[in-house]
Amino acid sequence: MSPGALDPDRHSLRPTRSRCSDRSTDCARRKAIAESVESAQLDLTAAGGMKKQHGRARGINPAVEPTGDGCLECLASGGWWLHLRRCAECGHIGCCDASPSQHATKHFHLSGHPVIASFEPGEDWFYDYEKDSVIDGAELAPPRSHPQDQPVPGPEGRVPRNWRSLLHEG
Ligand SMILES: [Zn+2]
Ligand SMILES: [Zn+2]
Question: Which of 13, 40, 47, 141 has the fewest CB atoms in 10 Å of its CB?
Answer without folding.
Answer: 141
